[in-house]
Amino acid sequence: MRSIDRDVPLEDLRTLEVQVHFNIRSDELIMRLAAAFAALATLLAMPGLYGVMANGDARRTREIGIRTALGAAPAKIRAMILRELVWILSFGLGVGIPAALASTRLVASRLFGVQAHDAAIIVGATALLALTAAAAAYWPARRAPRVNPLDALRWE
Predict the structure, then answer these.
(1) Between the CA atoms of 68, 74, 79 and 84, what dihedral angle is there, to the nearest 10 degrees?
(2) Number of other residues whose CB lies within 10 A of the CB of residue 154
(3) C-alpha distances in angstroms, 127 versus 26, 27, 99, 133?
(4) pLDDT tens digits for 1-18?
(5) Most CB atoms closer than 10 Å: which of 13, 28, 90, 152?
(6) Domain spans of the chain, in order of start
(7) Phi and psi for 2 in degrees, rounded to 5?
(8) What is the pTM assigned to this prediction?
(9) Are the C-beta atoms of residues 93 and 129 closer than 8 Å to each other?
(10) 9-13, 34-38, 70-74, 95-99: segment of lowest average pLDDT
């Protein structure tokens, strides 16, 4: 540069790669924060979903006790509890997936290198949510068939 023009100041020179990284640094920070908050939201959703499932089982203690007294198999009672999970999960995914697809245009316009409709991410997030819901429903579904029919009839 000095051989071409001595009057050009040579301060703060960077390669193109470093300059691009410097320019998108704030967007990368926003992306990392969004990912961290999404992980935190998933962790907070787990006890919430467990609470919903446990509360649903507690409300149905009398019904479960009657079913047990009439000879319902433990597998049938577990299936009944897990069926409730499927309804909750279906509703959540039915609302969440379209909302996520609608918001991808905004995300794609703000972040460099992010595709608007990345199927792998949507499928992965859906699978993670389903596994989270299954883990949250496991204990209430396991506990429900152990309800003593006499205690259940006295309950409330």
Answers:
(1) 50
(2) 10
(3) 30, 27, 17, 10
(4) 777 878 877 777 788 888
(5) 152
(6) 46-154
(7) -65, -35
(8) 0.62
(9) yes
(10) 9-13
